[in-house]
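Write out the 3D structure for:
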Amino acid sequence: MDRPTARPADPGGTAATPDTSALRNDSPPEHGPRVNLRLQQKRLTHLRLLEATVKVFTEKSFVDARMEDIAQAAGVTRATVYAHFPGKAEIIDALVERVYTLMEEAYAELAALPRWTQAGVRAWLDDAETRWRDMAPIRRVTNAAAPTALRSVDAGRAQYVKAHERYVGLLISPSDRWRGADPAEAGQRALMAVLQTESFFSAWIAVGWPLATADPLRLLADSLCHILAPAMREDDE
């Protein structure tokens, strides 16, 4: 019997048919001696197991799913699963961390824009929508498992805060982007932009909230540009 262990809080979502492409968004292979190749193979197996977990947990509850089910879905042995994860709760932990990593990659892309303009923010949202759709199945699975898997509230809070501090740090750098705005205000505006983006995409994509507007991202772009106003530039500047 798999032993649930303490795990942090997940980012949220509801059940649906999985699209696990977000779990295949792997970094390029490492270069170097044979040991690096083994590490790369281990990482690929790790991601393969996470992808299999999303499929299994979409079909079965956290309680009913077995490590054997995950092994079968991944096409590996049960021993391989246990070599990566002591139990199901640790797999959920890894899925939660995967979501945070994917979101950090999204905000890094926004931060990397030379200038923030209305057109630039809108283009970023188009790409971000694709990323959120890729990660939505993971969010649904972690949310469904949360009531059953034991977790530490303090650890979950710490994980959430640490991740969002990274997001804010990305958006407030470089400081000259904010044209002399008070650093505290810049930090709050960055946090508000992050939270609005996450909450909107979570409701619209992960939960499936129906929207009647022809272009849902237009209003979101307008709102984000207002929040980030001190750091925005005109499109023709």
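The first helix runs from residue 34 to 59.
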